[in-house]
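Batch manifest line 225
LIGAND: S-adenosylmethionine
JOB: complex structure
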Amino acid sequence: MAVQRRYDLINRLFTWGLDERWRRQAARECLKERPEQLLDLCCGTAGLALRLVGMSSGSTMIVGIDFSLPMLEIAREKAKHASMSERVALVHGDTAALPFPDGHFDCIGISFAFRNLTYKNPLALRYLNEVLRVLRPGGRFVLVESSQPTSRLIRKLFHLYMRWYVSRLGHLLSGNRGAYRYLAESASRFYTAEELRNLMLEVGFSKFSSRRLALGTVAIHVATK
Ligand SMILES: C[S@@+](CC[C@H](N)C(=O)[O-])C[C@H]1O[C@@H](n2cnc3c(N)ncnc32)[C@H](O)[C@@H]1O
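JOB STATUS: finished
ARTIFACT:
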């Protein structure tokens, strides 16, 4: 439970507090077309789901799903503490077999977990097909994720930052060397916005757009079914 308990704190430290701002921007993007049914996929400690609750009206149904029980336990504590438990359903489940009917969601958001689903993951296509299945036609998949800066110099500095600062500090604070090595490596080698666009169009999304943040180290992408 060590990583989970300190997960939010470690994120704040790595991003100098900006991760909350990026989630807020992603939540705004999710709510743009006034969805009625919204999913926070791989919700973790519910950072995005609780933002969505705070920024939407009571008629919006918000569900968060994650396969980690310890993360969900923290999510539930946070929802309770914020008096938001009534507005969000936190579900235990795997993206490989989402427990929702076809075309159920108007929008699916995912914050800082798309990399986990697709970086060297043999189940990546299965996950993306499940996302497509539970999204209604015309529905939007909003991703906020680390990205690759277009400037070679900034990319180099970003990779150094991940390998020297994030990987070591994460290990120190969580006691889990593997988790933060994986984070540093996967973020350094993850898709560029252009590669991601090709992947999403290939699997069956019809439109794709990207907005770069933080010198291109992070991006918000929107893929439409
Ligand atoms: C880096 S955390 C991101 C959590 C959260 N979305 C956030 O913004 O902080 C990745 C999360 O994805 C979850 N996850 C990874 N693979 C999953 C899968 N196949 N199905 C459901 N959850 C998954 C993990 O349990 C973890 O909580």
